[in-house]
Amino acid sequence: MSIHILGIFGSLRQESSNQGLVKLAQKLAPTDVTFTFYDKIGSLPFYNEDLEEPSRTPSNVVEWRNLVTSADALFIASPEYNFGPSAVLKNAIDWATRPMGQHALSGKVISLMSSSGGTGGAHMIEQLGGILGLLGNTMLSEPSGQIAKGADRISANGTTTDPAIEALVRTRLQALVDTANNLGK
Fold first, then answer.
1. How many domains does the chain have?
2. Which phi and psi (to 5°) does residue 171 adopt?
3. Predicted structure pTM score
4. Which residue range is the domain that position 106 belongs to?
5. CA distance linking residue 185 with residue 172, whole number of Å
6. What is the pLDDT of residues 18-55, one digit of tens each?
7. At CB < 8 A and 24+ separation, what contacts does 27-34 make?
8. Are 110 and 73 a contacting pair, CB within 8 Å?
9. What pLDDT band is residue 120 in, cutting at 50, 70 and 90?
10. What is the CATH classification number for the domain harbouring 37?
């Protein structure tokens, strides 16, 4: 059975190393996996409950929710800002988790990685992992997805000068596929 992975990154920077992690995962994805690279979370409006009425929901929000719904798994890479997830990523998650009780972001297998500063995004991974887990998703925790100062070693186009980063992405991607297959996705 083919697994559909949605790859997203929580940065607006053109030269984001987190974008590079998702692009590297896309390059390394097994041939029997569908990997959709989504780079439009910055175009989503700020979450506003007034826009929940279907006739008022922006078309890009509908597209985002449909992509999340159709995915079996998510490969997310994001920087850490002020010890938490980036606002643009949190906003995308807020849109995907509405309306309550019938949202798109539940029952997924999720790999969460971070290329960020000296801690490699440890606080962001802990916070966002907790949020996504509480929403009914299966979170991968091993091996750790933290990459300290990754901007020096991975480019936005998904190339890296560090074989350990490629090995880590490959391992986490395989764990994502294996877990999704084991759960019958």
1. 1
2. -65, -45
3. 0.95
4. 3-182
5. 17
6. 999 999 999 999 999 999 999 999 999 999 999 988 89
7. 27/158, 28/166, 28/169, 28/170, 28/173, 29/5, 29/173, 30/177, 32/2, 32/3, 33/2, 33/3, 33/4, 33/5, 33/177, 34/2, 34/3, 34/4, 34/5
8. yes
9. confident
10. 3.40.50.360
